[in-house]
Amino acid sequence: MFHIFKSSPKTPHEIFFHTDIHCHLVPGIDDGQKEAEPASELVEHEKGWGIDRIFATPHVTQDTYENTPGTIQPAFDLLKEAVGRKGIGVELHYSAEYRMDNFFLQQIKAGNLRPFPNNFLLVENSFVQEAWNLDKLLFDLRVKGYIPVLAHPERYAYYWAKRNRYQQLKDAGILFQVNVLSLAGHYGKQVRKVAEELMTNGWIDFLGTDMHNSEHADALDHYFASKNFLHHARQLEGFIRNDTAF
Ligand SMILES: [Fe+2]
Asked: Distance from the CA of 209 to the center of ligand 1, in angstroms?
């Protein structure tokens, strides 16, 4: 595995993990990329950072984006074709980012989920409030054999005033996926501060770009070239499981 501190980077932005487990690059089915061609350019952009394995994770939310493998697969195929035409050497897969709402409960019941390999499952709260009965829901998912990975816990503002909630969730065995954009300060100082606290506590299991568009790509370019990134990478390298969990 390429090591950022033991050999010189191939590009100024070469990073220390090779698998992105959170991005919105499947065209036309959520608030990420609309067309396959520009989406494939963002895949190429990720390749420039040293990422050569991408799990695209379209939103699955009640009313707004009621995606299922049936809606994701054909759109994903368009992305795959566009990436193939460009000859970008990236392994492409898809899963989804599941909002824990009633639609999600229906999909669980119907056996219509698309987890990562080894049954890891990316789930999110709404940004307004924690999912109803979250502890029971996460427990039930684990009983069903899923390994829940909570997407961007640092971004839920209602947790900031009660930081012990993070401890409770970790104690319950929930894995955390922090956004690189959070560490980059893209969502503001408070989100970065909480992300850094999660890092210092050793609670970050996965990183994800959560990239939706070229603005995010530019923000990440800037961050990967910064001293801040080197500082964060020293703490995270060897701990995050992006390349090893599945
Ligand atoms: Fe996302």
From this structure: 8
The number of angstroms, rounded, from the C-alpha of 244 to the middle of its chain's C-alpha atoms is: 15
- CA of residue 7 to ligand 1 center, whole Å: 32
Whether 71 contacts 117, CB under 8 Å: no
Are 215 and 209 within 8 A, CB to CB? no
pTM of the entire predicted model: 0.95
Q: How many Cα atoms within 13 Å fall on the side-chain side of residue 120?
A: 24
**CATH hierarchy code of domain 19-236:** 3.20.20.140
Give the Å distance between the CA of 32 and the centre of ligand 1.
9
The percentage of the chain sitting over the pLDDT mark of 90, rounded to a whole number, equals 93
Sketch the domain layout of the chain as residue ranges.
19-236
Q: In this predicted structure, what is the pLDDT of residue 104?
A: 98
Dist CA 106 CA 223 (whole Å): 39
Cα–Cα distance between 40 and 35 in angstroms, integer? 9
Contact 156, 125 (CB under 8 A): yes
pLDDT in tens, 148-167: 999 999 999 999 999 999 99
- DSSP 8-state secondary structure symbol assigned to residue 149: E
What's the pLDDT tens digit per position in 8-31? 455 667 899 999 999 999 999 999
Q: How high is the mean pLDDT of the chain? A: 95
Quote the pLDDT of residue 14. Answer: 86
Nearest to 145 by CA among 180, 117, 103: 117
